[in-house]
Amino acid sequence: MSTRNSGRGNAQALPGTPPHYPFGPVRALDLHPRYAELCREEPVSRVRMPFGGDAWLLTGYAEIKQFLADPRFSSLEATQPDTARVTPLPLRPGNLLTMDPPDHTRIRRVVVKAFSMRRVEQLRDRIREVVDEQLDQLVARGPPADLVASLAVPMPVVMISELLGIPSADRERFRRHSDVLVSTTAYDAAEVNRTRTALEEYFQELLEQRRSRPTDDLVSTLLEAMDTERLTPLETARTGVGILMAGHETSLSMISNSCFLLLSQRELYARLVAEPSLLPTAIEELLRYIPLRSTGSFPRRATEDVELGGVLIRKGETVIFQRAAADRDERVFTCPEKIDLARRPNPHLGFGHGAHHCLGAALARVELSLALEGLIRRFPDLRLAVPGDQVPWKPGLIARCPARLEVTW
């Protein structure tokens, strides 16, 4: 075992002062070179976070996979105010993201059927219909067009809203709230707090509406679970908010980023147009290669002393990880910096691992696949309307995403 350890709490771990995290400004889809260095040389390292003190940063594939499967690292404990983190406020307890088993298991069991592969396959035709509706509007308006506003945002918003049963009149409202909740620096802590509360209150209103008028949607399923699984009203509302956020924010960012990557390296898009049968492996490669998060993961805290990657992590210490670094670990992936649209095998961690493996992975895959399939089918000569280095990006958010992606054809 390494002698590197940090004592209790968030005390100093290594000689000297840990480097400040993040390591530098986030630029487009670039991954800071420090991650690759750490993955090779020190896959469990100490960093100083913007809020809450010091944390352990994981960058190696094996170390992250072990961490994600180990129940001794608690998501619930990481809601404590002194948790080291990149966001101004700690996450609130009471939603799937911040729960540990058995509560996490109990509530996940309620909603998992809505996101099963069978259910997603039933939605495939509807997703394709929504994609075609958005692309029809794109054609009608003519070039140039913004792929973020015209496709990447509306399609996932429509789908998660229909799954939950959110009225179309309310969708723009929750999109505005969503940008605030995924902020690291773009909004102040007071506004983030107000937005969290507003969304929770909105979901409680929806639950009350379903109590008198039940329908076939996920909000009604959550309402039933308040009785069958003994969910509290606050747990139910926070679970709904978590599903709403995760159900569209990741997809819209991933669609936007994938389009940017394929069009800024135009030979990749041209290859998909020429070989559409590559789309399934291309989707997995995009999930592997794109560093979706601007910084590391949401934090977890050790509930007892744990050895990880030869390092002793003490009870109470905070751990984060950078998934994109692990998915470029040369011990696992051949030529990891190369984008190989035909890569096999591809055991990436794009949707996580363990108990918190992304609930909506199947839906996200189908949404990304059908969005790209629609583009390469209908716009074989699609290209960026501005140079790639002039594409504007949303600042200060947890997930990377172009602010606009102007294209022409």
Number of helices: 14
Q: Give the class-level CATH name of one domain.
A: Mainly Alpha
The percent range for strand residues is 5-15%
Quick one: CATH superfamily of one domain?
Answer: Cytochrome P450
Report the principal-axis shape.
globular
Keywords: Heme, Iron, Metal-binding, Monooxygenase, Oxidoreductase
Protein name: Nocardicin N-oxygenase
Family: Belongs to the cytochrome P450 family.
Pfam family, one: p450
What is the element layout, followed by pairings?
Blueprint (H helix, E strand, L loop, with lengths): L32 H9 L2 E5 L5 E5 L2 H9 L3 E2 L28 H9 L5 H25 L3 E2 H6 L1 H11 L6 H11 L7 H24 L5 H11 L4 H32 L1 H9 L4 H11 L10 E3 L3 E3 L2 E3 L4 E4 L1 H4 L34 H18 L4 E2 L21 E3 L1
Parallel strand pairs: 2-8
Antiparallel strand pairs: 1-2, 3-5, 4-10, 5-8, 6-7, 9-10
Helix pairs in contact: 4-6, 4-14, 6-10, 7-8, 8-9, 8-10, 9-10, 10-11, 10-14
